[in-house]
Amino acid sequence: MPPIPDQPSRVSVEERLFSLVLALIATEIGLTKADILSNVQGYRQRYAPGGDNASLERQFERDKDDIRELGIPLETVEPPDDPGSNHHLRYRIPKGLYDLPADVSFSAEELTLLKLASTVWREGSLSAESRRALTKLHSLGVDASDPVLGYSPSLRVREASFEPLSKAMDRGHVVSFLYLKPGEESPRRRRVAPQAVVLHDGRWHLFGRDTEADATRTFLLSRIVGPVVTVPGESFVPDGDGKGQEALRELDALWHAQVAEVTVRPGSDAAVRLSKRSSGNTDPAAVSAIALHYTDLNVLADELAGYGPEVLVRSPASLRDAVLTRLIGVRDAHTDPSSTDPSSTDPAGTDPAGTDPSSEGEPR
């Protein structure tokens, strides 16, 4: 019976990254981009021998950045007979740099648990494809006798919308999703041609063209509710990695333009955490006034409200109002409606505006 050709299949981001790391640990001499795209699980299903693999190469470039962000030491090796050639660059993960530290040890019980966990991992759906990829790599002369020794998969937690948006972006598919903006009671369906998914200031953002508004918009992935679905019959031509840089430039400009002035209680948890983001005095025991750059007012308001009386917002007024609204909401949610205690009208327990007598009446 002739062999059954590979069929295109859906491969998750985590599975593709794991397979890539597995392959790069397994090689001493490194793999070229062509080796990786044509043999590693997650790439080979879409690889076109002798054809146009531009989108696949862009995906590989993003995956390299993701691997390095995970703390994995990815190296590039120039060919000795062709220095400076990007075409023949080889990639590898030096196993010695990714081993567990020499001073880390496990008890017998811990080793048993680790072995059980590794058994579950090996027997999962990833196992067959990983072995298949390694078999192909072995045919290229790669020594893969013990590729996973000292390696534990590290999976990044992302919003559920990350993977479907990334796939739609690679394939040029227009998508729709429900998006809930702060202050709105119900989400609104948006239809977007996704052009880039970028990480900025610790949060994932979608940069794309809103087809109904016919304008470029930036969306927080954390505000996408429900599934991301492909719009039948609607597509676009992916514009390359330049859109990601454009999105980051816009977010950086917004971050630099917006500054919040807050006062924190010295030595408090708020002082410790927020002082790290201030350009001035960063000693948590002494700092009181902090300037915070931000891209999204509501995200910052959520964070500051969580510190309670440890933070006082000085400006802008819109941020101060947003924080106060959240504090009042928390107070109301925990107030007995039948209570007649006058202090229950004040989130800070002093007056209806939630002010501090020593702070010139500004809300917390």
Structure overview:
Residues 262-327 form the WCX domain. This is WYL domain-containing protein. Residues 336-352 have a biased composition (Low complexity). The protein has helices at 13-25, 33-39, 54-69, 95-98, 108-122, 126-139, 162-171, 242-257, 269-275, 297-305, 317-333; strands at 31-32, 75-77, 90-92, 173-179, 188-200, 203-210, 215-220, 224-235, 259-264, 289-293, 311-315. It is α+β, with helices and mostly antiparallel strands and 364 residues long. The chain has three domains: 13-139, no CATH class; 162-250, SH3 type barrels; 258-359, no CATH class. The protein has a five-stranded antiparallel beta sheet with strand order 7-6-5-4-8. Strands 1-3-2 form a three-stranded antiparallel beta sheet. A three-stranded antiparallel beta sheet has the order 10-9-11.
Given helix and strand content, the structural type is: alpha+beta
- Count of the separate structural domains: 3
| SSE string, helices as H and strands as E | HEHHEEHHHHEEEEEHEHEHEH
The Rg value, from CA coordinates, equals 26 Å
Distance between the termini: 74 Å
Count of helical segments? 11
The proportion of strand residues reads: 15-25%
Can you give the mean pLDDT? 75
Strand order, main sheet: write it out.
Answer: 7-6-5-4-8
Sheet of most strands: 5 strands, antiparallel
Q: Number of DSSP strands?
A: 11
Tell me the helix content.
Answer: 25-40%
Uncertain segments: 1-8, 119-129, 134-157, 344-364
The gross shape turns out to be globular
Q: Topology, pairings included?
A:
Layout: H1 13-25, E1 31-32, H2 33-39, H3 54-69, E2 75-77, E3 90-92, H4 95-98, H5 108-122, H6 126-139, H7 162-171, E4 173-179, E5 188-200, E6 203-210, E7 215-220, E8 224-235, H8 242-257, E9 259-264, H9 269-275, E10 289-293, H10 297-305, E11 311-315, H11 317-333
Antiparallel strand pairs: 1-3, 2-3, 4-5, 4-8, 5-6, 6-7, 9-10, 9-11
Protein name: WYL domain-containing protein
InterPro entries: CBASS_pafABC_assoc_protein (IPR051534), WCX_dom (IPR057727), WYL_dom (IPR026881)
Domain WYL: 162-225
